[in-house]
């Protein structure tokens, strides 16, 4: 099955997850695509589409929101997987609901919260200050849920 993994990533964590998923699939069946890139790929070429986003200040990126809106009908015809990177455990489910429209979530064969990371080396001054204040964290930390990433791949196979 030809697979496209479409993602946006601010500090590289969602890209890392997308690459981990790609590594679990056969190399000649998978293409990684950053949503919002100038050259549009013909998504009709793919049987399976996996979409990944991350939460910053409560929402996914504008380019991923735009992508979901403009490709909604196509996505509802595809073998679909969704994943979300975020760090606030108590708000994770609600953030997932806000990130992906209900019809896409219901249609998806697999939909998972895969944890996230705080990468201080990738943050600007304001992001560092916000992370220290809101999350009480002052060093990089990785809380990726590799079991959920594996489950997503299994459920889509
Ligand atoms: C400035 C900032 C704001 C964030 N806001 C939220 C948030 O509102 N909710 C949440 O669950 N995680 C939040 N996070 C955690 C990110 O979702 C996490 O760092 C994620 O791994 C980022 O993935 P990315 O590098 O692919 O964008 C925030 C992180 C930063 C640095």
TrEMBL record:
Residues 3-157 form the Flavodoxin-like domain. Pfam families: Flavodoxin_5. GO terms for molecular function: electron transfer activity; FMN binding; menaquinone-dependent protoporphyrinogen oxidase activity. Its cofactor is FMN. One of its GO terms (biological process) is heme biosynthetic process. InterPro entries: Flavodoxin/NO_synth, Flavodoxin_CS, Flavodoxin_dom, Flavoprotein-like_sf, Protoporphyrinogen_IX_DH. This is Menaquinone-dependent protoporphyrinogen oxidase. It comes from Marinilabilia salmonicolor.
